[in-house]
Backbone:
């Protein structure tokens, strides 16, 4: 039987979601919790990777298990065996054809810019940018939306398709933050953070807004800005057809 789970985590102490040798990752901690609870090796399959230091509110993964699961009890059992900075938030049975990665319809990321200098209690979850011009930032977001070759906004992997569609970038303002919400079916490695790096440079008048056209036209990553810090980025949600 196949199950879909969503996990939230503070990524500050981890080298991203995907399991790697000799470093702590979210996948490693979850699979260890499964083994401790069930005495079985239960591999999990994620919707995708996250970078070192990136957080998530709802990061999905699927796994196969030979028995029916009482969802609430199973979640409680896993969370008892997980660090407090990793929490399973939901669990449900899905069809055997469901795949956490290949069934994705849409992903949503949020990048958080603080209006005021961070404190010891907020610095893990935001990035403060001095003299941040929000109107310039909004103007920049409009040029990044659409279907483009984002090769200048990613770490190049030979043979990987770099054309993507960014459905929307919504800017929300609160009393303490600017939130940049990116939505699309899939994103390249470092793509959201690279776009935010460009937005930040435009919003602080270090680059002219025409740099975005140059990046798309010239496809030269050397023209791009410094990749924005990981701690401001959250995988907010991943959407599937028929799954709430």
Residues:
């Amino acid at each position: 039987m196949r199950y879909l789970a969503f996990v939230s985590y503070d990524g500050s102490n981890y080298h991203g979601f995907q399991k790697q040798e000799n470093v702590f990752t979210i996948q490693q901690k979850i699979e260890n919790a499964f083994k401790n609870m069930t005495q079985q090796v239960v591999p999990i399959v994620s919707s995708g990777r996250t970078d070192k230091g990136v957080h998530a509110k709802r990061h999905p993964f699927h796994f196969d298990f030979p028995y029916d699961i009482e969802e609430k009890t199973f979640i409680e059992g896993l969370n008892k065996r997980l660090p407090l900075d990793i929490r399973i938030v939901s669990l449900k049975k899905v069809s055997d054809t469901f795949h956490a990665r290949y069934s994705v319809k849409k992903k949503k990321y949020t990048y958080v810019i603080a209006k005021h200098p961070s404190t010891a209690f907020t610095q893990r979850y935001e990035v403060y940018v001095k003299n941040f011009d929000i109107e310039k930032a909004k103007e920049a977001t409009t040029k990044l939306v659409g279907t483009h070759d984002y090769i200048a906004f990613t770490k190049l992997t030979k043979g990987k398709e770099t054309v993507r569609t960014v459905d929307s970038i919504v800017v929300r303002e609160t009393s303490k933050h600017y939130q940049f919400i990116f939505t699309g079916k899939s994103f390249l490695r470092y793509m959201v953070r690279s776009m935010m790096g460009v937005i930040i440079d435009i919003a602080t008048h270090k680059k002219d807004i025409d740099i975005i056209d140059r990046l798309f036209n010239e496809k030269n990553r050397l023209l791009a800005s410094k990749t924005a810090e990981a701690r401001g980025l959250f995988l907010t949600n991943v959407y599937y057809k028929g799954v709430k």
